[in-house]
Each structure stands twice: as C-alpha cells, then as structure tokens.
Amino acid sequence: MKATxxxxxxxxxxxxxxxxQEARRVHQKHWPGRxxxxxxxxxxxxxxxxxxxxxxxQSAHHNTDLKxxxxxxxxxxxxxxxAARANGSTRFCMGAAWKGVREGDRxxxxxxETIREVSKLGMEVCVTLGQLNDAEARxxxxxxxxxxxxxxxxxxxxxxxxxxxxxxxxxxxTIGAVQRAGMSVCCGGILxxxxxxxxxxxxxxxxxxxxxxxxxxxxxxxxAVEGTPLENAEPVKIFELVRMIATARxxxxxxxxxxxxxxxxxxxxxxxxxxxxxxNSIFYGDKLLTTPNPxxxxxxxxxxxxxxxxxxxxxxxxxPVA
Length: 322
Hints:
Helices cover about 40% and strands about 15% of the residues. It has helices spanning about 5-10, 15-30, 75-85, 105-120, 135-145, 160, 170-180, 195-210, 240-250, 270-275, 295-305, and strands at about 35-45, 90-95, 125-130, 145-150, 185, 190, 215-220, 255-260, 280-285, 285-290, 290, 310. The strands form two sheets. Strands 1, 2, 3, 4, 5, 6, 7, 8, 9 and 12 form a ten-stranded parallel sheet that branches. A hairpin with a 2-residue loop joins strand 10 and strand 11. The longest helix has 15 residues, at about 15-30. The two termini are about 10 Å apart. The model is unreliable at about 315-320 (pLDDT under 50).
C-alpha cells in the first residue's frame, strides 16, 4: 500500500501491543504459513571500496582492520553456493565492495559468469554490486539474477550525513534501472546511525511508494565497527526495532521483511518478537559480508523452538496470498 508520512507516524506510534497485533494480523493474512526464508550472503569482493559510507568497514576512507580481498572467481564462489543450498538456504546473495559496475568491464563479465553458474543450482540469486545503468541491469537479468539489493539506508534528508561520495538520487536511479530490467528489488535500511524516528519513517515512506513495492525489505541494525565514523553509535533498542518491523509489515504486506545485520546483539526473545511482528526472512550463516551473524545451528534451533520452519525452494508459501 502507498503510505504518507502522516499515516506511517500514526501506525508507528500506536500503543505497542495494538501495533504488533495489527502487524500480526496483516502477516497472517498475506503469509499464512510458518515458513521463514533462509538467505546466505557472501562477500565476493571485500574492502578497498571508493565510497565513504560511514557505517561500512569496507570503505577505503576508514581505518579499520579489514583486509581487502580481490574479486573471487567462479570456481571459488561455487562451493559456497553449494554449501548454502545444502544448509537450507533458498536465496544466495553475492556482494561486491565497489562503486558500481560497467558493461564490458572484465570484473563485471566475471560476475556474470558466476551468476550463470549459481543460477543452475535452483536457488534465488541476489547480487549487490553498487550502482547500475540500464545496460548492466539487463545483463544481470539475462544472466539469471532474481533480485538486486540496493538499500536506501535512511531518509533522503539524513542520507548526506552518512555518505558524501554519492547521493540518495543515485540510489533511486539504480533501483529504477533494476525495475526496468524486470528484476525484483531488495531494498531496506539501517537503524542506529544517529537518525531520528522521523528519518526511519521517511525511509519507509520512500519504500512504500516504490512502484512496484520492494520484493524484500532488509531491516538492519548498525554493527558499529571500530575505525568507522559510527564506531560509537548507540545500539538500537529492541522495541524500536520491533516497531519498525511491525510498521513495515503493515504498509508493505506483500514484501518479505528480512531481519538482517545486527542479530548477534539481539536475544532469542528479541528475535522471536521480530518474527512475530512480521519478519519472515533471516540471513543465515556465520557472517554477513564482513560482520558476524549467529551460527546456523542457533538459527535452526530458534525456528524449531518457535514452531517455524525454513522455507522450502519454490514452496507455494513463497508467494503471498492476494
């Protein structure tokens, strides 16, 4: 549903139990099963990025302990994809730390070859490669990409406080190219970067007014990395995270809401509350690009405790009820 800022404000600030009860009702209407999609994320090119995103350990502008790694070859990536499938992931995501890709570049051609091979494994294929134009987006679609991740991170107004090497409009232009190429959009944001609640709601307002809405919406909590400008940021409070997930579920009923980075700082009970409020996907595996993530067996144990189960490949539950 399209949403105005005033509508989002009214939803977000409802009494807590009223909010999560409504979010649960919407969730059960559109996602009636008990499945949670497991996604695996692999950094295929790490560090030495020319962008100065204030939250990111991979920026060449920041003095972190991260050791840069060159672009992985198809032969190096495929074992990770096979392992992800064997462990129950139905979406394999590959991320490269750079400004963007250009048609004809040898690194882009290498990524396209990898995508062709990974797409043969029967999983959804998601990539996050920075900025795209229409030509690159079409090639990614033709190679077998299911979804393209390109987060807007925060509100348009607060964005310049986080990044100076590109603009919010640059993000929207890439998302437009992805949509024109026929790929699904995976787009969300990061909580805990010093933004206000109004910034968070403005971010949701932008997402809710995409046409079509994002197929999936990652809700990340900042993992404060030493050496980045945000190393001393205050952790996000669990009730603020749950309110954001619940609000996102209400205004984006058909989107997968992905409980993403920052889960290592959440209790099992906190994660359970997020899943109750509308999250129906998690990133699975011990690392998200360069930040830690719960062990796979911990996630499976939590789902079992809650009476939930991993989404099976091509399950009817992967298609929301109209």
